[in-house]
């Protein structure tokens, strides 16, 4: 049982939860995720860790209410308990001094991007962050991103904030302007697919952090399998980050809709 | 237990009298007991336990068959060394509690073993009846289950004799059969045992893998509760190697670590269409249904309820999956296996029960491709027909494709049950562990000690994929070896 100590609404459906989890807070690194379960009949769902405070013994999760389980989690309030939080899982992000790194996040994907932006900056990189969302109120964590980024570009589909356009337009603008050594992308699968197509064109190494369906999250069930470079890989153990140019995003999109009819 | 002890127990007055109370002929004339089973048509509509257990009268009569041999061959077939004649003769004289206590001397989970052990290949295969009289062996497994169930139902589950607390902390990684049996033995010896479990439930494969109709969760929970009462502590949602490191365990004062983290990544066959929706591993399918209770409308976890379900493989897990599919409403539930039925690794009882429940057996068939619809859901499978050729490395005749013999079958769900690789979490996380190319931890064959002196390992993380009872046997051996090593350390300190 893990207590929720703070909650903030980023938008109607996007919530930030600060959760007591001292062991996970201490062990986690950028890129790691946790498995969360709400209630005794609850489903196990993976969520990437956005921030951690080792002193307070807390981790921060940003959750978008999309299905039954995420809605249940979003409905919890400070003082409530999450039935199970287990982690940190997955491989940590490979951080080193690459040079110039473009970090692009879409929607709630910006939350797990934050620790990577922070770590990339700390490793001495020039970090350009591209934040994208449908509309202004869905742009999250902009202030924190500015703290660790040399530059932040905001893109909205409807032009209500920042530049009007898709994330790929923001990224391409940077690529055309200066030499980019690495791109990191986290967001909806379809967005990552198009970022990957774009950076492949410019031969820029790109890492995508994938969020697939999981049951146990510890390398047992195989529900999270995807095809990378023609080989089956498991997101929970081999990932969650992969070479975006090798990921079969179409298959991943298809697999994400696996339980649409059943749920 | 050594021969002298066994002989001394056999020479006890009550055993002598019991042996003399009936002539051998009277005993051997009794036919082997038949256990009541639920009617197949009824049981596929629910998940009630299929085997109903023995009545006390049945158990006593079956126990009477046992000749209480001078050299009990049955014991040589038991991986945990249960004193089989002693517990059976206690049943014969009507002391069912003492029978249960006898089981507990060596087995932390008798009610589990009585249900899931392949007795026909272990104790019962060595029985004098089978070996010398060419008759059906004593139903040792049924009797074991009877004694354990009797004690559980009485509500007064006895604890084994415990040595006084020695203050030494021991960590166990994983709460499956290996970890639990190790924890039980170490607690008996006076150690302070903490079991770390990655999932939210205790029991490992006994909970997520083996279905309710074969091993009810409440049976497992009573055994776990006994361990709690023996002082074993359990910590769920904690992954050693992730949440806590090897160094953390040292800082917390653990003097010995038993890695029993079990099986991990499911194997797939790497054939076209295997990542289609509706194709999944048996681990995923069974975990959804057993651990997450996904067939229950109140559960948040979804599961497919296919109408034409193919399960690929011929092991116990394949049988568990296909029988689960029948219970979830499959009209056509099929086992697809590339060899013939004679080579199937599953227990005979499971195959028999599956057939009774209307499962089709497509033996000598091997899937070569899955075909999906426009939405990526599996709709058909292509099967290559096989014939048996020369024996392979496993000694079984190997399946050879018949050229051109390919058929296509409609399916809407496929469960791949062709084995698992060891769980990679611990081997990846602890430096200095010696690991095979297959990912199993290398241990000393006798002591189960790894390359790191304070780490022992057993069960599927060492064997790659075995049975509950072999995992439990590993737990017992590792406990004995670790105890000896720790005592030696203390003496030299």
Automatic annotation (TrEMBL), chain A:
Pfam families in alphabetical order: DHODB_Fe-S_bind, NAD_binding_1
Known EC number: 1.18.1.2
Residues that hold FAD according to the record: 62-64
Keyword Iron-sulfur: yes
GO biological process: pyrimidine nucleotide biosynthetic process
InterPro entries in the cross-refs: Cyt_c3_hydrogenase_gsu, Dihydroorotate_DH_Fe-S-bd, FAD-bd_FR_type, FNR_nucleotide-bd, OxRdtase_FAD/NAD-bd, PyrK_electron_transfer, Riboflavin_synthase-like_b-brl
Positions with a binding annotation for [2Fe-2S] cluster: 221, 224, 236
A GO term, aspect molecular function: ferredoxin-NADP+ reductase activity
Cofactor note: Binds 1 FAD per subunit. Binds 1 [2Fe-2S] cluster per subunit.
Cofactor(s) it depends on: FAD; [2Fe-2S] cluster
Record-annotated FAD-binding FR-type domain positions: 1-95
Keywords: 2Fe-2S, FAD, Flavoprotein, Iron, Iron-sulfur, Metal-binding, Oxidoreductase
NCBIfam families assigned to the protein according to its UniProt record, in alphabetical order: PRK06222.1
PANTHER family membership: DIHYDROOROTATE DEHYDROGENASE B (NAD(+)), ELECTRON TRANSFER SUBUNIT (PTHR43513), DIHYDROOROTATE DEHYDROGENASE B (NAD(+)), ELECTRON TRANSFER SUBUNIT-RELATED (PTHR43513:SF3)
Designated name of the protein: Ferredoxin-NADP(+) reductase subunit alpha
Lineage start: Bacteria, Pseudomonadati, Bacteroidota, Bacteroidia, Bacteroidales
From TrEMBL, chain B:
SUPFAM superfamilies xref list: alpha-helical ferredoxin (SSF46548), Nucleotide-binding domain (SSF51971)
Highest taxon, organism lineage: Bacteria
Name listed for the protein in its UniProt record: Dihydropyrimidine dehydrogenase subunit A
Domain (FAD/NAD(P)-binding): residue spans on this chain: 169-475
Species whose genome carries this gene: Barnesiella viscericola DSM 18177
Residue ranges constituting the Dihydroprymidine dehydrogenase domain according to the UniProt record: 44-154
Single GO term (MF): iron-sulfur cluster binding
Family annotation (InterPro entries): DPD_II, FAD/NAD-bd_sf, FAD/NAD-binding_dom, Helical_ferredxn, SudA-like
Taxonomic lineage from the root: Bacteria, Pseudomonadati, Bacteroidota, Bacteroidia, Bacteroidales
